[in-house]
Amino acid sequence: MIPDTPDWTRELCSLLEEEIRVATLLWGAIKREREALRARDADALTSASGVKQQCLAELDALDKDRRQMLEMAGLPSDRAALDKYLETVPDNHPVAYRWQRLIGLFEQCRQANIANGQMVAIQRSHVERALRVLRTGNPDTLTYGPDGSHASGAGSRTLSSA
User: 140: how many CB neighbours lie within 10 A of its CB?
Assistant: First the structure.
């Protein structure tokens, strides 16, 4: 059972608040990443991706701190153990509220990151199609064989000469 002393609860709440703060920054970075993808703004994309990576590193460290805190209390440090504990406390318990908020933010970030990845995949397919047109004159002509090797004779087309 998780210790339910005021000091321990306050310390865990403080840690969760910090995770919520960083997860909120991550959410903002992912939204800025999406805006940069839509605008095809490489500088903004690089900036947003850098912030995203910093947030992920911070969240990883905070997760490690939370796990250590639980282990020091002699408890399992996985999410299931915390979820099980939270089933025993009222919904308005300070840890329960913060944990649910954090999990909600993580889910928002996950969904937005998936959407960004899909946008990247679509943009990549457009670029690949444009390159096929430039190489072969036909957007449907593949310039690589089924094994991933460059197909012979498929890609050389003179666009101009001097």
Answer: 8
Contact 155, 145 (CB under 8 A): no
Are 58 and 1 spatial neighbours (Cβ–Cβ below 8 Å)? no
Residue 30 burial by CB count (10 A; 0-12/13-18/19+): exposed, middle or buried?
Answer: buried
Residue 4 to residues 12, 85, 102, 114, 139, Cα–Cα distance (Å): 10, 10, 20, 37, 64
Residue 150 DSSP SS3: strand
* Residue range 121-133, pLDDT digits in tens: 888 887 777 777 7
Runs of H (alpha helix) within the chain: 6-39, 42-72, 79-86, 94-136
Task: Give the dihedral of Cα atoms 36, 42, 47, 49; nearest 10 deg.
Answer: 70
* Spans of all domains in the chain: 6-116
Parts of the chain with a pLDDT under 70: 1-4, 139-162
CATH class, range 6-116 = mainly alpha
